[in-house]
Design brief:
Elements (H helix, E strand, L loop, with lengths): L8 H39 L7 H8 L6 H32 L6 H4 L6 H9 L5 H24 L3 H12 L10 H17 L1 H7 L3 H6 L4 H23 L5 H13 L6 H22 L6 H22 L4
Helix pairs in contact: 1-3, 1-13, 3-8, 3-9, 3-11, 3-12, 3-13, 5-11, 8-11, 12-13, 13-14
GO biological process, one term: siderophore-iron import into cell
Keywords: Cell membrane, Membrane, Transmembrane, Transmembrane helix, Transport
Subcellular location: Cell membrane
């Protein structure tokens, strides 16, 4: 009689390989689902407004076989800028939250969206601020800059006040295709750099000691990540204004969809695009009055932020 001995590591290796395959399949399914949802919202945006344009007519316009002022001048640029800005906000928000290991670490909350990206880099590199302290400092900086903005608005001439308020709220009104160039460049450069650093950024979430032991250059990765986040958010904000809570909401939604063990950067970017395009469609078509996209995302994000703060206070986190 022969006895077959099984290597004890073999079942574990098979189990880990099977788990890895499931994670990959789930990640691909999430990306495919988000792309399908974004495509559906794009079709709705191009077809539905004050009047309805049949999908066949929209397709002929996109193929150059017909002309439509509504599609090519009003709805089309609005959709393109919404998608690109949403990708920037979502990707920047996810990278920021993973880097600082805090769900409050959204660019618009910690002050990057208000123009304090340089202060954030200075705080990390020179002052050695931890994630929690940087977030609290960023909230203070954002509040201070908000006061300066309020003072400028109170003293602004009437002809420029409306444009300033629309930009501060975050709006896709008046979108033009020539504004898409900087967004594409930011996604190619800063977004590409973040994706290249995604493994190191994810390793930082394990803690500085473990990341350093695994060979991650902490200072370089932190500075590069913050600079890329600043670039994405700054270009998107310059194009469409400060659309509230997109980066803040994208990361946790993407993490919940993708599951543990997967980088949330690509799903978060797609979630950001879905949020911006969907919120703009709701503000322009579904609600009884027309609202800028920033008003809709603010209404969605504010309750989530308050709930998160309450949960963190109960857990004793800062």
């Amino acid at each position: 009689m022969s006895v077959v001995l099984l290597h004890p590591a073999r079942p574990l290796a098979c189990l880990l390989a099977d788990l890895r395959r499931r994670q990959v399949r789930r990640g691909r399914a999430v990306v495919a689902g988000l792309l399908a949802l974004l495509l559906a919202l794009a079709v709705l945006t191009l077809c539905v407004g004050q009047d309805v344009t049949p999908p066949g007519e929209v397709l002929r316009v996109l193929l150059g076989q017909a002309e439509s002022f509504t599609v090519t001048t009003l709805r089309g640029p609005r959709l393109v800028l919404g998608v690109l800005a949403g990708l920037c906000f979502g990707l920047g928000g996810a990278a920021c939250q993973v880097l600082l290991r805090n769900a409050l670490a959204s660019p618009d909350i910690i002050g990057i969206g208000a123009g304090s990206g340089a202060a954030a880099v200075f705080g990390i590199v020179v002052l050695g601020l931890s994630g929690g302290r940087l977030i609290l400092t960023g909230i203070g900086v954002a509040a201070m800059l908000g006061s300066v903005t309020a003072w400028l608005l109170l003293n602004a001439p009437a002809w420029s006040l409306q444009d300033a308020l629309r930009w501060l709220t975050g709006s896709l009104n008046g979108a033009q295709l020539d504004q898409a160039g900087p967004l594409v460049a930011a996604l190619a450069l800063c977004g590409g750099a973040l994706l290249a650093l995604s493994r190191d950024i994810a390793t930082l979430s394990l803690g500085d000691d473990k990341a350093s032991a695994l060979g991650v250059r902490l200072g370089r990765v932190r500075v590069a990540t913050i600079l890329c986040v600043v670039g994405l958010v700054a270009v998107a904000t310059a194009a469409v204004g400060s659309i509230a809570f997109v980066g803040f909401l994208s990361a946790p939604i993407a993490a919940r969809l993708a599951g543990p063990g997967r980088s949330p950067l690509i799903p978060a970017a797609l979630v950001g695009a879905v949020l911006v395009v969907g919120a703009d469609f709701a503000g322009q078509v579904l609600l009884p009055h027309r609202y800028p996209v920033g008003v809709v995302t603010g209404a969605l994000g504010a309750p989530f932020l308050l709930g998160l703060i309450v949960r963190m206070n109960r857990g004793g986190r800062t």
